[in-house]
């Protein structure tokens, strides 16, 4: 299994675990965002770990310092090169706010940092169509070249789309996880593309089949 494929499946699993059943799942809602930030400065991570609150740094295990924020809830991986990856926020707005707060914590200990380059590179969202899907049929049909469905490894199907470039993880209970988006607009466009395809692959229940056969029998 490719690394990128495993990453999508892991993101899908985390997204589903974070689903709030009280929310309206008919429309996608964002569960996580990831951004790459260039702070335009070289950092001494030992100094950061000693002077900034809520930092974990063990260079023997991982080359980055791990910073955590409570409001908004966020985690940052901070590298000595000045590159910072910000994740864990449930909206692009909160992600950028968290990046600014992490930067300010470095400014307080003397670093002249700035958000030189800020790029939102992954928005993860989830929704549910509320219907059962026949993923086996979808996997061998017209879009088979864009899908991977290995139920012995993972219960969801990955479906690659090209405009926007994203990977969807689709489950037979109608749940969809969107990965690789750059914005809410990307997610909305992906849903507009995939919804009619999935609706055409709704699984007919056995009870419905029985009813249909019974009607056919009476008609004869």
From TrEMBL:
Keywords: DNA-binding, Nucleus, Transcription, Transcription regulation. Gene3D superfamilies: TATA-Binding Protein. The keyword Nucleotide-binding does not apply. GO terms for biological process: DNA-templated transcription initiation. It is found in: Nucleus. GO terms for molecular function: DNA binding. Pfam families: TBP. InterPro entries: TBP, TBP_dom_sf. GO terms for cellular component: nucleus. SUPFAM superfamilies: TATA-box binding protein-like. Belongs to the TBP family. PANTHER family: TATA-BOX BINDING PROTEIN. This is Putative TATA-box binding protein. It comes from Piedraia hortae CBS 480.64.
